[in-house]
């Protein structure tokens, strides 16, 4: 028996959605807004060719998670900032805040499941859509 994402087992031992109808409707509204915003980007057509629709919900949820974790990060840095003055990415001119988002993205990539990789083949994405980080010491 496989459990359903976004569900819990109630007192009668049945799967039940943990979210309300109101939450689902608002999430659908958020998805619609996100899609409209994505259409403003020039490589939108390229994104649609990459089976982007299958990962859209995950991206919206990760956007919300990034906001919450960034707030927690700022609170932590408010207390312990003097202990973290430099990034551990040597030779790169990035701030600690930029490093946070790079690290968040890397964690996202490491935590995706194998079916996710099958649906989203990164090698098919054009160079326009890729984020490339280059050190000053590296040659292109």
Automatic annotation (TrEMBL):
<dbReference type="InterPro" id="IPR024079">
    <property type="entry name" value="MetalloPept_cat_dom_sf"/>
</dbReference>
<protein>
    <submittedName>
        <fullName>Membrane metallo-endopeptidase-like 1</fullName>
    </submittedName>
</protein>
<dbReference type="GO" id="GO:0006508">
    <property type="term" value="P:proteolysis"/>
</dbReference>
<dbReference type="GO" id="GO:0004222">
    <property type="term" value="F:metalloendopeptidase activity"/>
</dbReference>
<dbReference type="InterPro" id="IPR000718">
    <property type="entry name" value="Peptidase_M13"/>
</dbReference>
């Amino acid at each position: 028996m496989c459990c359903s994402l976004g569900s819990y087992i109630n007192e009668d031992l049945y799967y039940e959605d943990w979210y309300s109808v109101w939450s689902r409707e608002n999430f659908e509204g958020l998805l619609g807004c996100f899609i409209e915003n994505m259409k403003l980007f020039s490589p939108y057509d390229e994104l649609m060719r990459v089976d982007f629709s299958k990962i859209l919900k995950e991206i919206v949820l990760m956007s919300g998670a990034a906001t919450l974790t960034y707030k927690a990060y700022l609170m932590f840095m408010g207390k312990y900032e003097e202990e973290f003055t430099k990034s551990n990415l040597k030779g790169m001119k990035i701030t600690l805040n930029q490093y946070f988002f790079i690290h968040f993205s890397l964690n996202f990539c490491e935590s995706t499941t194998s079916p996710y990789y099958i649906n989203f083949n990164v090698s098919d994405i054009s160079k326009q859509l890729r984020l490339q980080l280059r050190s000053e010491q590296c040659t292109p």
